[in-house]
Design the sequence.
DNA sequence: TATGAAAGTTTTAAATA
DNA sequence: TATTTAAAACTTTCATA
């Protein structure tokens, strides 16, 4: 699917504030309701626009600890990897997980209530799948946290 | 502000799909329109519910490279830190930035079109503020990427 | 907490450039 | 082919019971 300048403007508006009405978005991008509506529909169908969600205040809700977890493994077999990915996807405290190039194999972002909850997560994970080396980096301050792509 | 079980159910629904109507949310949490509406309004006022946004398909939009950047610095002065944080907040390719406890001082998540764009970002950053040591971890595969807190 | 009515929004369809 | 107009269906918002 081809995305033009108007589509990109619409996406920028939606990223900034998805609660805007079609009229507001249309005005912001210099178009009108129906064409904007059709473009949004097409981009949803194409999977370019995914979930509409809200960003919550993690601290206020008691999620006071955020860890970045660097994982090295000696296992590189297909079966091990399948089980490992399944474990990550199923654990709701894992907000992000990436397989990396190079020395470190995986990085996770884990949000939990406190350090004890992190330890519980860690123990559960290593009992499910064998990992070689784990380093946890504790966040002291969230300087920035956005999902908006720099369109 | 105190959050009860019904509030938490509402937040779970909004995280899952913020485009739902009040009626749908009310049904899902076992309540009705008006109370749900009042609870959402209060949580927005209290800042517990923040931006409403959409998650976009980064790959489809040409953002094919994602790096986690580990930064060590020798500078710990207030002025240096202020300039560094400002630089991070202003750069749209920095999606996340955390100050860490321990050996590594900062971690960034940076989304760019390609490796060349990452290098341009890196050169611009180090020309703005002095950093001691930088390690970039390149993501090969996004296994999971959610903003939903495990409520 | 529930009801309901006014205001506003989305969605579809027909008309027009 | 894309945009504007128009109108029906639905949703939000808020006053009142």
Sequence:
């Amino acid at each position: 699917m081809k995305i033009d300048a108007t589509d990109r403007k619409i996406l920028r508006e939606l990223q900034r504030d998805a609660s805007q009405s079609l009229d507001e978005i249309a005005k912001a991008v210099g178009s009108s309701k129906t064409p904007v509506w059709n473009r949004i529909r097409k981009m949803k169908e194409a999977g370019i626009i995914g979930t509409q969600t809200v960003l919550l205040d993690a601290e206020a809700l008691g999620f006071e600890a955020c860890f970045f977890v660097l994982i090295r493994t000696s296992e590189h077999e297909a079966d091990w990897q399948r089980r490992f990915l399944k474990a990550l996807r199923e654990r709701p405290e894992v907000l992000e997980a990436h397989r990396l190039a190079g020395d470190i194999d995986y990085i996770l972002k884990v949000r939990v209530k406190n350090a004890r909850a992190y330890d519980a997560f860690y123990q559960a994970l290593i009992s499910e799948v064998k990992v070689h080396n784990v380093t946890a980096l504790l966040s002291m301050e969230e300087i920035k946290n956005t999902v908006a792509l720099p369109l």
User: Anything to note?
Assistant: The beta strands of chain B are 49-56, 65-72, 94-100, 106-112, 133-145.
